[in-house]
Amino acid sequence: MKVVFSDRAFAAIMAETTEKIKTETGGLFLGSFEDGIWYVIEAIDPGPKSIFEVAYFEYDQQYTQHLINKIANLYDKKLTLIGLWHRHPGSFDQFSSTDDGTNSKYARMRKEGALSALVNIDPKFRLTMYHVDQPCRYSVIEYDVGNHLIPDEMLRYKSPEKFANLMAGIISDEYKDFHPSVSLNGFLKTVLPYMKRIKLNEVFTEVKDRNIATERILDELVEDSAFLVDDQGIEYSISQVDQFICLSQDAIDVSVKLYFRYISENDIVVFSYNNECYLYENNAFRRAFEQASKVQADNIRKIPQYDRGISITDAVKKIIHINLNKDGK
Fold it and tell me: What pLDDT does residue 280 have?
């Protein structure tokens, strides 16, 4: 296993380190994992509202989520979030307990784990690459830099013609055939019957530290956020509204906004949709989708005339895919 950086990605790490030479800083890796090689195509900056201190650093999470979607959309081959990096003071090139928590969250986002890198200036620039496996096991891995080491298709941008087709699709009746995203509204119709609906009759007090509330919600959402994009092909945006985290998708037929809130009195995260409130826990959307798929499979087995030419799994996927795109963007 090894890592290959594009020229642009490696230059971005060095540029960010240079700009914040007196404090900690960091960034996120976009790329892919193929045949035992991690390809880092882009290294995005941490955002203008990040916290930069001599021995502490915190990402501007709203900004980075926005930038991930923007940059990934430029490339012909899909880029995903595969890891992160940050600078440590002096020669300290081991992870802190806080880093362990962050790295373990990223490692859970994909079966291959994740990348995490440390930068030191002692006195020259030094980068140490780690592979993080679940639950939080580290191994140092080698890295190379150079576009010539990366398959051409990974560096290729979407062509002007492809964007022209997308734009043509948006203003035509055939929009659903051009746009890659499936409907978040359709997905919710599939999973909500398998999620716990709750009533909140109390007037809850606001959490004094909004950062605590935001972090708590994002901790729960991190795995499902990757599941929605990577497994379901659902494009969405994340924003903060007061003490809520809003996950939204604007579609031609219907706009969806899910408002997530942390209830400190009960130490739970909930979200509201269509005037209903649901309990939300880590991986809740994935678990509900898997349960819905199982029910669909059981129902198909009960139909004597179902197409025996395809497997139960393929039949379920076909039915759910149709349902998701009925409301399609």
Answer: 94
The DSSP H or E segment spanning 323 is helix 312-326
- b/e 187-209 (16+ beta carbons within 10 angstroms → b): bbebbbebbeeeeeeeeeeebee
List residues bridging with 118 in a β-sheet.
86, 128
How many degrees, rounded to 5, is the angle at CA 207 between CA 201 and CA 210?
A: 130
Higher-confidence residue of 198 and 62: namely 198
| Strand, coil or helix: 75 | strand
125 Cβ contact list (under 8 Å, min separation 6): 14, 17, 119
Contact 259, 244 (CB under 8 A): yes
**11 alpha carbon, distance to own chain's centre:** 24
Give Cα separations from 293 to 117, 299, 302, 311 (angstroms): 38, 10, 14, 13
142 confidence band (pLDDT: 50, 70, 90): very high
Lookup: tokens for 296: 């669909």
Is residue 24 within 8 A of residue 55, CB to CB? The reply is yes
Nearest to residue 120, comparing CAs of 40, 29, 47, 13? 13
Mark out the alpha helices in 20-126 (DSSP H runs): 61-72, 97-107
Distance between CA atoms of residues 182 and 279, nearest Å: 24
- The three-class DSSP label of residue 214 is helix
Task: State the pLDDT at residue 5.
Answer: 98
Interval 296-327: pLDDT, tens: 777 766 655 545 555 545 555 555 554 555 55
- CA triplet 95, 136, 149: central angle to 5 degrees? 80
Residues recorded for the chain: 329
pLDDT tens for each residue of 193-240:
999 998 765 545 565 667 778 888 888 888 888 888 888 888 888 888
Name 202's Cβ contacts closer than 8 Å, sequence gap at least 6: 265
**293 and 316 in contact (C-beta within 8 Å)?**
yes
Q: Does the pLDDT at position 274 exceed 90?
A: no
Average pLDDT over residues 16-41: 93
